[in-house]
Amino acid sequence: MAVGETVFPQMPVIKGLRLGTASAGIKQPGRRDLVVIEVPEGASVAGTFTRNAFCAAPVHVARQHLAARGERGLAPRYFVINTGNANAGTGAVGMRDAEASCDELARLAGVEGEAVLPFSTGVIGEPLPMERLLGAMPEALEALGEDGWEAAAEGILTTDTRPKGATRTFTIDGETVTIAGISKGSGMIQPNMATMLGFVATDAAIPQARLETLLREGVSRSFNCITVDSDTSTNDACMLVATGHGPALESDAALEAFRVALDEVLIELAQAIIRDGEGATKFVTLEIEEASTRQEALDVAFTVAHSPLVKTALYASDANWGRILAAVGRAPVENFDVDRVVIDLGEVRLVEQGGRAACYTEEAGSAVMAREEIRIRIRLGRGEARATVWTSDLSHDYVTINADYRS
Asked: Does the pTM of the predicted model rise above 0.90?
């Protein structure tokens, strides 16, 4: 179940980048579950990773390899991604397996082990089936091609119901810059850097330090503003590659144009995760305005977004606006003057001056709640800061999917 009709876009070639997909039978025989992404020499690569203390072995190894290459002024040459098994909570064995994955791909590709970054997603606490995983690597390398985006997007899915991709192009100084990316994520979604796996690339040439800043700030406005169930995964990672096979972006105007386009790609990919949230029937935009700080706005937004009572009311299309009011009131905000709070559900005013708006009717509220896409706007009357968060409802199917996840 997912919200809205989404067609995987026609993805452009990113000069210098190749993707290959294979079937290793890690969890389901016959499905494509192993992806290799080849990064050209001379590229710049930035990454963000989960802050979960139990982060998976591939997260540890990917961070170590990325840092080691960076100290030598080099970028990674390959990403190897598997689905069906998270290689998390697997201790020393998991670390050895993650390193072994890198070493085998490096041997096959003729690079050093540190040039490979591993990524995994799936069931936590189970050892990787290394024989099947390593055995499928030649097939993935053989499949490498510039047009492998959709196969790769399908190859990284877990409980997702559809592949997720986004792309943008823009022209600066007469030259065209292209950005493209894929993501996966459906459950265990509440960011603490970026909740999911995401791989985005551009043909532009961008200095390493600037690329890191662009990704970090872009993630804060996209993947760090989504939540399905308030759970942060052990395996989250988002990578941004600048192949350098296109225009060099050096001026402030060029980098600003890139930032805008990158944000659009990241937000589209993040929103696609919410639309495909486990059991989701509603896509909900929470707009918090007039906060004293952006963090305060985020605190209010996530308090509402994580409320089981709000989320079940959304699923039932029940205009129980008191649940929204109560969630706002328990957000960690000091010296809250509730008389200044204004809450709108779509075009319907719910709350003002400390209580139900005089113009509110149950009929109008129910009509908005029945929609697939709902906007909740909350003005705090405390300042000029704002934030937007995207979330989903909580359905019977969410419980069923997660109760049966390992079955």
From this structure: yes
Helix ranges, 81-201 (H)? 91-109, 130-135, 137-142, 149-155
How far CA 369 is from CA of 42, 227, 283, 364, 393, in Å, comes to 51, 19, 11, 9, 11
Token pair in block for residue 177:
């810059």
- Main-chain phi, psi angles of 30, to 5 degrees: 90, -15
Residues 6+ apart with CB under 8 A from 96: none
For domain 18-275, give its CATH number from 3.20.20.60, 3.30.70.360, 3.60.70.12, 3.40.50.720.
3.60.70.12
Residue 407 has pLDDT above 60, yes or no: no
Once rounded to an integer, what is the mean pLDDT over residues 44-66?
95
How far is C-alpha 197 from the chain's CA centre?
A: 6
Distance CA 260, CA 222 (A): 12
Look at the block and give the residue holding tokens 């050096």. 250
Backbone angles phi, psi at 75, to 5 degrees: -105, 160
Contact criterion met (CB below 8 Å) for 234 and 53: no
Catalytic residue flag (residue 303): no
Contact 86, 123 (CB under 8 A): yes
What φ, ψ does residue 150 adopt, rounded to 5°?
-70, -40
Query: 125 pairs with which residues across the strands?
Result: none
Element (H, E) at 176: strand 175-184
Average pLDDT over every residue of 33-44:
97
58 burial via Cβ count (<10 Å: 0-12, 13-18, 19+): buried
Whether residue 99 is predicted with pLDDT greater than 60 in this model: the reply is yes
Which of the residues 195, 281, 303, 391 is marked catalytic?
195
Band of the pLDDT at 278, cuts 50, 70, 90?
confident
* Rounded Cα distance, 299 and 304, in Å: 9
Taking residue 176's Cβ as centre, other Cβ atoms within 10 Å add up to 13
Specify whether the CB–CB gap between 261 and 170 falls below 8 A: yes
Calculate the CA dihedral of residues 93, 98, 101, 106 and round it to 10 degrees: -130
- Considering the segment(s) 283-403 as one domain, its CATH architecture is Roll (3.10)
Every domain of the chain and the residues it spans: 18-275, 283-403
Question: Residue 404 has what pLDDT?
Answer: 73
Residue 226's DSSP bridge partners are 390
Span between the terminal Cα atoms of the chain, in Å:
19
